[in-house]
Write a structure and sequence with these properties.
about 325 residues; mainly alpha; 14 helices; about 70% helix; about 0% strand; flat; disordered N terminus
Length: about 325
């Protein structure tokens, strides 16, 4: 009987094709629950960052916008746009806008041009390390320390006037921080002395990432040094240029410490920028409503300028 039962068993396949396995498909309900868990986990990881940004950035900005519509008197607290009308009626704020525009142009143009020039000159030089150290070192200083150094140089009996007097150029000696717009211009130069260091570092990184074969191919095609710089180097430095100009733009609009230590916005209020005017109106003039309006306008200017610049650069890059 055992022999007959053994004979009835089907033969075991040794080399034939195997039957395909059935893939168990997940139901839409299970798939939806899994995606919901993944989104919940991602939200849990992002929640602390979102909470911090809301607590320290968005909430103060919303309160500042709300406060800008209120005056600083008890008789008529809600003033609509009276605080914003100060930009047209207050001469100090009109001058502050002029100074802010000068700061934006100067703090963008000077670090960009000087940083690119110094990076190109020291990229393959034997003394490049020493030159980079001398240029980058001021960037490690705080704005207040830079202001103290330049205050020693620019006062009436400072180092600049003493050097001019020593070489026989007494007619050029002057009070560098006493008259407008010269005082604003020399402070822009002081800011560029500090800000050029980071531009040099970024441009050096960009220059060292350019393949040497590209430059060799350009020289073999008969391109001069200027043509190689214009048509090969500059286009490949576009990403670095976006970063340098963007950083300089934001830093120029919010410059405060250098101006405050050198002149405190004076003489009078001649050298104030919007950042200094915001501090002056809020804490010295005790008009927080006007200070909040200046803060809102300054924030909108920074956001608009950054958005317009980045949009233009990204459109050009994409095209």
């Amino acid at each position: 009987m055992s022999t007959s039962m053994t004979d009835r068993r089907p033969p075991i396949a040794t080399g034939g094709p195997t039957a395909p396995r059935r893939v168990k498909r997940r139901s839409p309900f299970v798939h939806g629950r899994q995606k919901a868990r993944e989104r919940l986990a991602a939200g849990g990881f992002m929640a602390p960052a979102v909470l911090l940004v809301t607590l320290f950035l968005l909430a103060p900005f919303v309160w500042t916008v709300y406060r800008s519509f209120f005056s600083d008197t008890r008789t008529s607290p809600f003033s609509w746009f009276d605080n914003y009308s100060l930009f047209a009626s207050d001469p100090a704020l009109s001058r502050s806008i002029q100074n802010t525009l000068m700061w934006v142009v100067g703090t963008v143009a000077l670090p960009f041009v000087l940083g690119l020039a110094i990076a190109c000159m020291t990229n393959a030089s034997r003394l490049s390390r020493l030159a980079r150290l001398c240029v980058v070192l001021p960037y490690a200083l705080s704005g207040s320390a830079v202001a103290v150094v330049w205050n020693f140089m620019l006062t009436t009996d400072g180092a600049v006037n003493q050097v001019l007097t020593g070489v026989g150029l007494d007619s050029l000696a002057q009070g560098w921080l006493l008259t407008w717009p010269g005082n604003t211009l020399v402070m822009i130069v002081a800011n560029a002395w500090q800000a050029t260091g980071v531009a040099v570092i970024l441009f050096l990184v960009g220059l060292q990432s350019i393949p040497s074969e590209t430059l060799e191919a350009g020289s073999l095609d008969g391109a001069s040094g200027w043509q190689q710089f214009r048509h090969i180097v500059l286009p490949q430095l576009r990403p670095v240029s976006i970063i340098v100009i963007g950083m300089s733009l934001v830093n120029g609009l919010k410059s405060f410490d250098l101006i405050w230590v050198l002149t405190q916005g004076g003489p009078g209020r001649a050298t104030e920028t919007l950042a200094v005017s915001m501090y002056n109106e809020t804490f010295l003039e005790l008009r927080p409503g006007a200070g909040a309006a200046i803060a809102v306008v300054l924030t909108l200017i920074v956001l608009a300028a950054s958005w317009l610049y980045l949009r233009r650069q990204l459109d050009v890059k994409g095209g």
